[in-house]
Amino acid sequence: MRLGVVGVAALLVVTCGTWKAQAQDVKAAAVAVDAAHAAGGFDGVVVVLDHSRVVMAKAVGEANRGTGGIGAQRMTPATVFRLASLTKQVTALLVMQEVAAGKLRLDERAGEAMPALPATTGRVTVKQLLQHVSGLANPSDGPDNVVPPFYLRTGSDVGSNTATALGACAGPAKREPGMQFEYNNCDYIVLGAVLEAVTGKTYTALLEERVIRPLGLTSWGLFPAKPRGPVAVGYSADGTVELAQNPATYCAAGALFGNALDVAKWDDALLHNRLLSAQWTEVMFTADPKLCGEGLGSWAYNSPVTAPPVHVVERQGELGGTRLLNLLLPGRDAAVVLVANTEKADLFNTYSKRGVGFAVLKAWLGTPVP
């Protein structure tokens, strides 16, 4: 179904199933975004998706405050951002496609699928990589407020999952697999390499063939490719430009770029099982209570934003001063996408009833229809 954009001022009432997205609820969500912006806590784009329709696409603040000799540029719904760890949700989907096709198993060791991996990496299972319990060396280790050398790399191999999995991510393990959760970009870079080994195609080709082209995501791509148009500049909490790093180094863990409208199209495809069957989507989004609600590439929980609570599948992302929050509401056939270019944006506390994401959900969801 084609996504349509409805202005926030339109007096539209969309009724589907047991949920009614009233115009005043959409306006209330827009007011919540304006309030966060006025308080200095949000510059960015918010898209609200309801039954395959974009009922709100709101941009506030500046994509560029005049950095690098370029004049200030206002934020628009089409502004391109580094989508950071939304890439992990995409990688998880590509992995689950291989699982559904019988070409990978969640309990399969990575080295079975990719024999070239070193022993410390090859012994970790696909599921352990998806859930960040691999115990692998972590390239993000190091002092605060200093970009680790891993993310400053340049050269022909940067952007290659296979080269990075066999090189920079192949250091001595920190612990035995399955012992402890530790967020680690190398987990998903290794998964990207496994996908390349199993399919015989590059991760970039898989993304293009299986996601970008089928969904018509014209703004999406992977660094080091160049986006069509400027990318929003990220800013630290003090207003200075974020510390420089090379987004291509994140590979299948965080090298994706695109705009929030295309993220909403991605969400709609997930909600309607266009890329993966309902059976395997459920597996991907099922929360593990032992891992604080982590699924495979996302987190899931019941939010008290409504009574009864609404089920939320959440994906966060951060790359320097750029922040992303993607909220899927499968039971409502809805989603909310928030992308900001300031570290001041409180996007990572929705589960604890705080932040811009929670404010938008609370304002928008309205009242269930009996």
Strand content bin: 15-25%
- The number of helical segments is 11
> Which residue ranges are poorly predicted, with pLDDT under 50 across at least 5 consecutive positions?
1-20
The name of the CATH topology is: Beta-lactamase
* Rg result: 20 Å
Give the strand order, joined by hyphens, for the main sheet. Answer: 4-3-13-12-11-10
Biggest β-sheet: count, sense, barrel?
6 strands, antiparallel
Main structural class: alpha+beta
Give the SSE order as H and E letters. EEHEEEEEHHHHHHHEEHHEEEEH
Find the count of extended strands (DSSP E, 2+ residues): 13
Rounded mean pLDDT score: 91
* CATH architecture identity: 3-Layer(aba) Sandwich
Number of domains: 1
Quick one: CATH superfamily?
Answer: DD-peptidase/beta-lactamase superfamily
What is the general shape? globular
Helix content: 25-40%
N/C terminus separation: 27 Å
Q: CATH first level: which class?
A: Alpha Beta
